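Issue 218. Parser rejects a valid record. Input:
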Amino acid sequence: MQPLAALSPSALDGESFISPLPTSLLNALSRQLIGDLPLTLGITRFSHSLFKTTDFERHNVPLPDNFGKAVAKRQAEYLAARICAKTALQQYQVTESPWVVAGERCPYWPQGWRGSLTHSDGIAAAIIARCHNISAVGIDIEGWIDEQRAERLASAILREEELVYWRSLESSKSRARWLTRIFSAKESLYKALYPLARKAFYFHDASAIYDEAHPEHLMMRLEIDLSAELPQGFVCHARTLALGAEVVTLVALSTDDA
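Output the parser choked on:
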């Protein structure tokens, strides 16, 4: 039996910290976001206010030594994302979870696996893939940026050629929605490529080609050299899907792409 493409962790007895997504939404994520890619997504809603430190022990997820003094909100986000990763990996009988090394910008994954984590306001996700299928993967979830904030942030996120298109959009709502998708796609691109290049890059170091008539598909282009394998002009595909209050974006490179 094939593992599901998208699934939610089950809440434990008496627990209200996490809330699984409905089957209809998981099916949409499987079909419209993942499609035929060899990926498995764990995703859940969670409540900051209902989180308890004992939830780490309840879910058998270690609390990092340097995380014990973090505020409850940060601990809840960390745990929710790790529960999603654990749920996805367990579909393949992998019992390890991703871990973080002090000073590193990205988590490490069990041998033979790649993955990416994300969380937004009350929603978290983890996506995993076998290394022999996928060379890089990045996922990001963002709440829709409001119209006034979008106007303030646009120049910090968009390159000049992107700004030209953004300004051509007819309504402030369209501009805010477009900006949110581009912001999230660039976040996903970073999460996918940084583990390969181990070189930081920023919003203006990548551009996106996006047709408002087909918002689920974007082409991402590097505007700087990250490595010999990831030169300026490197292009890859990003997928997006609106979840209601949020948008989720995905960048995945097959082992033939990088």
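Fixed in the parser; the record now loads. The mean pLDDT is 92.
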